[in-house]
TrEMBL record:
InterPro entries documented for this protein: Tscrpt_reg_HTH_GntR (IPR000524), WH-like_DNA-bd_sf (IPR036388), WH_DNA-bd_sf (IPR036390)
Gene Ontology molecular function terms on file: DNA binding; DNA-binding transcription factor activity
Signal peptide: none
Protein name stated in the entry: Transcriptional regulator, GntR family
CDD domains: WHTH_GntR
Alphabetic keyword roster: DNA-binding, Transcription, Transcription regulation
Protein source organism: Ligilactobacillus acidipiscis
Stored PROSITE patterns: HTH_GNTR
Length: 134
C-alpha cells in the first residue's frame, strides 16, 4: 500500500480495512490479520496499526476478543453505515471538485448519468453514446 502525505497513516489503514469489509473480502464475524501481520504488510510501526484498529473498535466496526484478536462486527447495520459513509464521502469529494470548476448540479447529474450508461455499455449491457464532454 502506498501512503499519501495528506492523511495520517493510521487513517489510511482504517480506510483500507473498511474497504476490505465493504467489498466483502473481510466478512462479518471474520478475524482480521494481527497487528504484527498488518504492520509487516504495510511496512509501518505496530503502534500505527494498533491506533487504526483501536479507532475501528471505538466505532464498533471491529470487535476485540481478548486473547483471540480482532473480528469484523456481526452487525449488518454498522457495515451498511460504513458503506453509506464511504459512498457519501466519495460523492462529496467529486461534488466539491466539480463545483470548484463552476459545473452546475444539472451538468454533474447529466454527466454522471452518461458516465454510468457508458460503463454499462462497455460491460455489454447497453449501447448508448456518451453526451457529456467532461
Amino acid at each position: 500500500m502506498k501512503f499519501t502525505d495528506d492523511v495520517p497513516i493510521y487513517r489510511q489503514i482504517e480506510q483500507y480495512i473498511a474497504g476490505e469489509i465493504i467489498s466483502g473480502r473481510f466478512h462479518s464475524g471474520q478475524q482480521v490479520p494481527s497487528v504484527r501481520q498488518l504492520a509487516l504488510q504495510f511496512s509501518v510501526n505496530t503502534n500505527t496499526v494498533q491506533r487504526a484498529l483501536r479507532e475501528m473498535i471505538i466505532k464498533n466496526i471491529l470487535e476485540s476478543r481478548r486473547g483471540l484478536g480482532n473480528f469484523v462486527t456481526s452487525d449488518p447495520t454498522i457495515i451498511e453505515d460504513l458503506r453509506q459513509n464511504l459512498i457519501n464521502k466519495s460523492l462529496l469529494a467529486m461534488y466539491k471538485q466539480l463545483h470548484a470548476l463552476n459545473i452546475s448540479d444539472v451538468e454533474i447529474k447529466g454527466c454522471l448519468d452518461d458516465f454510468l450508461e457508458k460503463r454499462r455499455s462497455e460491460d455489454g449491457k447497453h449501447d448508448r453514446t456518451e453526451k457529456c464532454l467532461l
